[in-house]
């Protein structure tokens, strides 16, 4: 049984925390300040934890400190949503310090973020059956023009029941410079086209939604914090996986997916969707499609790639734990997520 946090509403307080990297430098500080202004204009209040604007050796603070800052927000009954400020590299260091009793004995809150931040989302959902939202980090709201995909995050969490998201028309192949991004937002130039690994023109599948950034969630493999198989096998309706990668070359991607498969992650699966990636360059005679075929060909499930989530903007809001239906229709698609 999935526990869904209470839906958010205008006037609620959002707690901002740096679970991985923090924000430093004028460009990023200005963007974060602009993000706060935009979110306050939407009717919300902001509380910022102590180490959000600190960063050294790829982290805002040591793992225990980051975990304590997160736990304080979780225990604060005045806070309805915990927004991770940014991604990074080493969020996994805070997991040993997450207090399970505090998580279970306090009301669930929405936790948002993607990239390294998606590891915390994945951990909370698979270990505690608490729904989380893999979606834009809070700093993404500081761009010059707020994209509708960002506004959709709040729309979904304010509704708290059912959402429908359709493929976007354009995506960002090349980003603006940091300064121009602060002024203009996303550089949407390329036509969105989803692809079916097996060439079907139409397909449709449903299941309990789980996933995130492969680079980071794969760090749970072989650790005491990995309850993924038990989580996935607990749902008779089967799973709908969504995955994307940030920095893995295709050889590393294959190794990670192989580990996930042989560990049992994909045994109770109805289908899988992959987000757009900018790191799928072929190495010698081994391609991105070779990776997908080697992992999934004998599983007899739909595999769709180049979908609207991940590190290539814009991105959908993905609710871990929701009951989702993905529909593919000739290079286009949609996802329905029900909080049941």
Could you give the topology of this structure?
Layout: E1 13-17, H1 26-41, E2 45-48, H2 63-75, E3 79-84, H3 100-105, E4 110-113, H4 117-128, E5 132-134, H5 148-159, E6 162-166, E7 170-171, H6 178-184, E8 190-191, E9 195-196, E10 202-213, H7 214-217, H8 228-233, E11 239-244, H9 250-262, E12 269-275, H10 288-296, E13 303-307, E14 318-320, E15 323-329, E16 332-338
Parallel strand pairs: 1-2, 1-3, 3-4, 4-5, 10-11, 11-12, 12-13
Antiparallel strand pairs: 5-14, 6-16, 7-8, 9-13, 10-15, 15-16
Structure write-up:
By secondary structure, the protein is α/β, with parallel strands linked by helices. It has 2 domains: 13-161, Murein tetrapeptidase LD-carboxypeptidase, N-terminal domain (Rossmann fold, 3-Layer(aba) Sandwich); 170-338, 3-Layer(bba) Sandwich (Glucose Oxidase, domain 1). Helix content is 29%, strand content 24%. The chain is built from 10 helices and 16 strands. It has helices at 26-41, 63-75, 100-105, 117-128, 148-159, 178-184, 214-217, 228-233, 250-262, 288-296; strands spanning 13-17, 45-48, 79-84, 110-113, 132-134, 162-166, 170-171, 190-191, 195-196, 202-213, 239-244, 269-275, 303-307, 318-320, 323-329, 332-338. The protein has an 8-stranded mixed sheet with strand order 6-16-15-10-11-12-13-9. It has a 6-stranded mixed sheet with strand order 2-1-3-4-5-14, sandwiched between helices. It has a two-stranded antiparallel ribbon with strand order 7-8. Helix 3 (100-105) links the parallel strand 3 (79-84) and strand 4 (110-113). The longest helix is centred in the N-terminal third of the chain and has 16 residues, at 26-41. The protein starts with 12 loop residues before the first strand and ends with a strand.
